[in-house]
Specification:
Elements (H helix, E strand, L loop, with lengths): L1 E9 L3 H14 L8 E6 L6 E9 L6 H8 E2 L2 E4 L2 E4 L6 E2 L4 E9 L1
Antiparallel strand pairs: 1-3, 1-8, 2-3, 4-7, 5-6, 6-8
Length: 106
């Protein structure tokens, strides 16, 4: 199984997005070895960059704990998938994150 994290950040450069990616990797380090990482401009909104991270995932990990480590106010789509968006009661670990999605895939 694999834990996939995807978010969009509003920053002025790819270097700034890469710095946020490193912060996110630090928050997710309990997952172990990173399988894949991508930072690229988001084609739809020119001020946004997309960050994608994936890690191996085992049943011993707590999906809810991972959500909590990243931010509050997640909308749970299932027991293995959630999205985050900036609403009044939601707070993400980095204020530059404008949308996020996490999912465990087999």
């Amino acid at each position: 199984m694999e834990f996939c994290f995807r978010c969009f950040v509003e920053v002025d450069s790819e270097a700034s997005a890469a710095q946020i990616k490193e912060e996110l990797k630090d928050l997710l380090k309990s997952l172990g070895t990173l399988r894949s990482e991508v930072v690229k401009p988001y084609w739809k909104i020119k001020e946004y960059f997309e960050i994608f991270l994936s890690y191996p995932f085992s049943e011993t990990e707590s999906f809810k704990n991972l959500m909590t480590s990243l931010g509050s106010g997640w909308e749970e789509l299932s027991d293995k998938e959630a999205i985050w968006k900036p609403i009044e009661v939601a707070k993400f670990s980095n204020e530059k994150v404008k949308w996020a999605h996490i999912e465990v895939v087999e």
